[in-house]
Design goal:
The chain is of the alpha/beta class. It has 3 domains: 4-115, Rossmann fold, CATH 3.40.50; 123-251, NAD(P)-binding Rossmann-like Domain (Rossmann fold), CATH 3.40.50.720; 254-405 and 427-446, Dihydrodipicolinate Reductase, domain 2, CATH 3.30.360.10. The protein is 35% helix and 25% strand. The protein has helices at residues 15-28, 41-46, 56-65, 80-87, 123-130, 143-152, 168-178, 187-193, 206-215, 230-242, 252-255, 257-267, 301-317, 409-422, 431-446; strands at 4-8, 34-39, 71-75, 92-96, 111-115, 134-139, 158-164, 182-184, 196-199, 219-223, 247-250, 274-282, 325-332, 337-346, 351-357, 366-370, 373-377, 386-391, 396-401. The strands form 3 sheets. Strands 13-14-15-12-16-17-18-19 form an 8-stranded mixed sheet, covered by helices on one side. A hairpin with a 2-residue loop joins strand 16 (366-370) and strand 17. Helix 9 runs parallel beside helix 10 (230-242) and helix 13 (301-317) packs across helix 15 (431-446). The protein starts with a strand and ends with a helix. The relative contact order is 0.11. The structure holds cytidine-5'-triphosphate. The site of cytidine-5'-triphosphate (CTP) has 16 residues, from helix 1, strand 4 and helix 5.
Length: 448
């Protein structure tokens, strides 16, 4: 007789799941019990598994329905297995051999057995069969496009298997690196083949690609800033609406789970009334030959980095009248590119303060001053994964941690795919947020 424990997500309970539970049950013998842990939605999100379709309740119901589990419980965090093994007096831990070697640390408390996976079946396969998989095309092959391709593999419901670049050689290199099936020099040919376009070109080319994709009724995810022309951005969002497709600005910070939590906590009054949002993002970029310094390519500290610092200001304080903003910029390249800029935006009962820089370094933190305390988010807050809530004495009263996995681009993509699937408007970073930000960003660029 033995107490046996095993874990899984058990999305779309299938034969592979049944087989591992059956084999685990055999280890119990007479009088032993099988304990089965099912991952919570939050835990899956935290460990970067964003492709689970069924709710925790449904997944638990299915495991229960198999009749194989004697005890069912929820797995909520990394490290919980050690506690469970002790709490349930476990003799044997069983898991599929896709995890081979991962749970050796449990040998201190119980026997660890890796069983061969059942071949030819997985939740991923079922999800892909059950849902229409969106076909994605990518235009632009630069640094962010490379990072995006890696991250896109963690989001289900979409496959990026087409790439377009006017310089075909670059598209071919990119396709080889990321095993992309189709390569095009012509954007219209790509549009014929895909449902979704990710625009990752340099700033000045965004509008043209986005417009053509929207006219062809394709959903568009476009790198930030969407354009450097307010009326053009407005027209693009209207075009998306007229054509019944989604246009999302790829502002990764807004979609980070921990940043969303911060916004919700502040809005629920955790530091009282918000008096000031102060955000800085500086990245020393000494090589002046880079695109970041090219005025023709929309370079400058503001177009490169202000989307990040204005994001918490817009999310927490809302849209502002640009005439209520003063900006001071240090400039280069014949006065056409900002190397360092600071701005102050006046709201009726608060202020937004931001600093961005390519040619000057500062502590990149985010602070939200409130009437009863403040929130402090250390650098790199634009990839938020940790923040502190401090009281009027500056003492930390709460620490909040929520991982930001990889480059974090998976979060914006998951939200985008979810919005397409549900047909719902984007709540996290929609047209009104994006336009409010652009209005300030453009005004800051004109303001010396
Ligand atoms: N499992 C198995 N055989 C399969 C699929 C899963 O033995 N064909 C096992 C896993 O090794 C694990 C348990 O079932 O021990 C739960 O796996 P889970 O991750 O929930 O299922 P997957 O089908 O692997 O899910 P996904 O495709 O999302 O990775």
């Amino acid at each position: 007789m033995a107490n046996v424990i095993t874990y899984g997500t058990f999305d779309f309970f299938h034969d592979g799941h049944r087989r591992i539970l059956e084999r685990a049950k055999e280890f119990c013998g007479e009088g032993g019990k099988l304990f089965v842990g099912v991952t919570s939605e939050n835990y899956d999100r935290e460990r970067g598994k964003l492709n689970v379709v069924q709710s925790l309740a449904d997944r638990m119901e299915q495991v229960k329905g198999s009749g194989l589990a004697d005890e069912l419980f929820v797995e909520e965090y990394e490290g919980q297995k050690i506690e469970d093994v002790q709490r349930y007096n476990i003799d044997i831990f069983v898991i599929g051999d896709d995890w081979l070697g991962k749970y050796e640390y449990l040998k201190e408390w119980c026997k660890v057995v890796y069983l061969p996976r059942t071949k030819g079946i997985s939740s991923t396969m079922i999800r892909n069969d059950a849902r229409h998989i969106l076909r994605g095309g990518i235009v632009g092959c630069g640094r962010i496009a490379n990072r995006f391709m890696v991250e896109s593999r963690f989001v289900s419901g979409i496959v990026f298997d087409a790439v377009c670049n006017p310089e075909l050689r670059l598209a071919e290199e990119f396709s080889q690196k990321h095993s992309i099936k189709d390569v095009f020099a012509d954007f219209d040919t790509l549009l014929d083949k895909v449902d979704v376009v990710y625009v990752a070109t340099p700033h000045p080319f965004h509008s043209e690609y986005v417009r053509r994709a929207l006219k062809a009724k394709k959903h568009v995810l476009c790198e930030k800033p969407l354009t450097l022309d307010y009326e053009e951005a407005k027209a693009l969002y209207s075009l998306a609406e007229e054509n019944g497709v989604i246009l999302q600005e790829a502002l990764k910070t807004a979609f980070a789970p921990c940043f969303k939590r911060l916004v919700n906590l502040v809005k629920s009054g955790i530091v009282g009334k918000v008096r000031q949002v102060n955000a800085a993002f500086t990245r020393l970029t000494p090589d002046k030959s880079l695109r970041e310094y090219d005025p023709e390519m929309g370079g400058g500290a503001l177009s490169e980095l202000a989307s990040y610092v204005l994001c918490p200001i817009i999310k927490l304080l809302g849209a502002a009248d640009p005439s209520q903003m003063v900006t001071h910029s240090l400039r280069d390249q014949g006065d056409r590119v900002e190397t360092f800029a600071t701005g102050i935006i006046k709201y009726s009962a608060s202020t937004g303060v931001f600093t961005v820089g390519l040619g000057g370094k500062t502590e990149g933190s985010l602070a939200v001053a409130g009437s009863t305390g403040y929130v402090y988010v250390p650098s790199p807050w634009w990839k938020t994964e940790y923040f502190e809530i401090r009281n009027d004495m500056g003492q930390t009263v709460r620490r909040v941690y929520c991982p930001f996995i990889g480059d974090g681009l998976r979060y914006e993509l998951a939200e985008f795919v979810g919005a397409i699937a549900s047909g719902q408007k984007l709540a996290v970073w929609g047209a009104s947020d994006s336009l409010a930000l652009l209005k300030l960003l453009l005004a800051a660029r004109c303001n010396v």
